[in-house]
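Re: adenosine-5'-triphosphate structure - here you go.
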Amino acid sequence: MITVNSIFKKFGKLEVLKDFTLNFERGNSYAIMGPNGSGKTTLIKSILGMVLPDKGEILVKGLSIKGSNDYRKYLGYMPQIGRYPQNMKIGQLFSMMKDMRPEIKTYDLDLVEAYELDKIKDKSLGTLSGGTVQKVSAALAFLFNPEILILDEPTAGLDPIAVEILKSKIKNEREAGKLILVTSHILSDLEELTNHAIYIFEGEVFFNDSIESLKEITSEEKFSPAIAKLMQWSLKKKSTTKAMTYA
Ligand SMILES: Nc1ncnc2c1ncn2[C@@H]1O[C@H](COP(=O)(O)OP(=O)(O)OP(=O)(O)O)[C@@H](O)[C@H]1O
């Protein structure tokens, strides 16, 4: 459903994505993991067309994302930090988003209702708490019932009830055959929500396989120790590569 074909991205001298090739298939939920600054958001933003790779190609449902924004209708995106016009009211934001997609007549209002956003529709976005902004972002990501959901640290900043609501929504959507991409540092969330692990380390895809395989390869029954082992291996590889370079 999404093909990332040998993409490279540098910011100045910093090589953030080095030869990334990945396939994302419908009905699966992918955990995109890696240390801070490893390139998770850059990967997501490249798929969304918000960051332009220096080389390589990205296809969404077989269509290259270069040159046309048409593919974006398939994507729902929840950013790490939602930035909205400060003086706009919640209700106005939703009306504006609906006006931008006039061809869509039915909306997925599950999260609008669960988070009771209608009750605060006259509040300005600039006055909202961080968690409430996250609720707005989550509700917008699902609003047009997209086939692909890209969620960047979706549970960060949400209270425990809001987290459970969002997690159950994500699980339902995956069961309905959608493709889900999630980045998070909260391993218990990833274990619950995903079936495929992608671990990025220093600009490279260090691991890309099912969570079952990850557990087998690491000889760990639980997700968290399996990831810890992967992290140790990536650090070991780094020091071995360094030693080889200096030899
Ligand atoms: N627009 C930009 N200009 C310059 N450098 C950037 C830009 N965007 C990202 N970077 C740098 O690229 C690297 C990767 O950033 P990115 O946000 O993709 O990491 P991440 O894996 O999502 O990190 P985190 O876990 O902290 O969210 C970082 O070193 C970051 O500072």
